[in-house]
Amino acid sequence: MPLRPDFLWGGATAANQYEGAFNTDGKGLSVADVTKFRPEIPMTDFAKNQYYTLAEVEAAASDTADDSVLRYAKRHGSDFYHRYKEDIALMAELGFKTFRMSIAWTRIFPNGDDEKPNEAGLAFYDRVFDELEKYNIEPLVTLSHYEPPVNLALNYDGWYDRQVIDFFLKFVNTVVTRYASRVKYWLTFNEVDSMSRHPLTTGAIIEEKFTGRNLEEVYVQAMHHQFVASALATKIIHDIRPEAQVGCMITKRTVYPLTANPSDVLAAQAAERDVYLYSDVQVRGYYPQYYYNQLNQKGITLVKNLGDDEIMRAYPVDFISFSYYSSSCVTTTDKGETDSGNIYSGVKNPYLKTSEWGWAMDPQGLRKSLIDLYDRYQKPLFIVENGLGAIDKVESDGSINDDYRIEYLRTHIREMIRAVEEDGVDLLGYTPWGWIDLVSAGTSQMSKRYGVVYVDCDDYGNGTFNRRKKKSFSWYQKVIKSNGQDL
Ligand code: BG6
Question: Which end of the chain is least crowded, N or C, by CB within 10 Å?
Answer without folding.
Answer: N
